[in-house]
Design goal:
With about 240 residues, the chain is mainly α. It contains 15 helices and no strands. Helix 6 runs antiparallel to helix 7 and helix 7 runs antiparallel to helix 8. It starts with a helix and ends in a 6-residue tail after the last helix.
């Protein structure tokens, strides 16, 4: 085993705050999916850029200048609140269910459930999200992570491969597939995948650490289930 790990390494070397709860539920039926004005879109893009740069509080401040009845604004607020670990995220996501951003809302609720260690609830939300948006690679990847947390290996493999084929430039699902292969002690296939996709030593180390946690669930606890929050792309686009 150690020799194989060393071989993999050598191969790689080559190659916010609120004053109280906001009644988001009351806005459920009034969410607008219409086109944003040019000024609103500019503010939304700025908030996206800030979030993607890790400036979550600044991103939220910019979003708070936009109308709450806009579905796109609510979705991005929900994502920022989720990344900040704030309770406002869930009611915001729920306010979008049944509307034009229902898939994104189910996805967010699935990520929240997974982060709290509730893989069953996460699975339900992510399966609904996948039915609503079957070609969204991030949803498929996150569903795969939940399946892997449940040790449903073949279901997880299917979702990771689907995500990889949907967006070949995104290595997120590939790292998760390497995790699965290492969990199965399939080091040859893991090495081949790492070499073919040019994954970094840090990515392999991350995959190996997750695989070890999957093998020792009693020690890892909910941190394994929370991996979906850690691996899901935080970008708001």
């Amino acid at each position: 085993m150690k020799a194989m790990i060393a071989g993999l390494s050598l191969l790689l070397l080559g190659g916010c705050a609120s004053n109280g709860p906001t009644p988001w539920a009351a806005l459920t039926d009034s969410a607008s999916c219409g086109k944003l004005s040019s000024e609103q879109q500019l503010s939304l893009n700025l908030a996206n850029d800030m979030a993607n740069d890790g400036k979550l509080h600044a991103s939220l401040a910019n979003l708070q200048s936009l109308p709450d009845n806009l579905a796109d604004v609510r979705l991005r607020k929900a994502k920022v609140y989720r990344l900040l670990g704030r309770s406002e995220a869930e009611p915001l996501y729920r306010s979008l269910l049944g509307g034009c951003l229902a898939a994104e809302a189910e996805h967010g609720l699935g990520q929240l459930a997974a982060a709290h260690g509730d893989n069953g609830l996460a699975q339900s939300h992510l399966q609904r999200a996948a039915r609503l948006a079957p070609t969204d690679e991030k949803i498929r990847n996150d569903l795969g992570v939940v399946y892997l947390n449940q040790l449903r290996v073949e279901d997880a493999r299917f979702e990771f491969l689907t995500a990889m084929e949907l967006k070949q430039s995104d290595q997120l699902a590939a790292v998760n597939l390497v995790t699965l292969l290492i969990y199965q002690d399939d080091w040859n296939r893991a090495a081949e995948l790492v070499s073919r996709l040019g994954l970094s030593p840090a990515q392999v180390t991350e995959a190996q650490a997750r695989a070890e946690k999957l093998k020792t669930p009693a020690k890892s606890g909910p941190s394994v289930a929370a991996q979906v929050a850690a691996v899901a792309n935080p970008a708001l686009q």
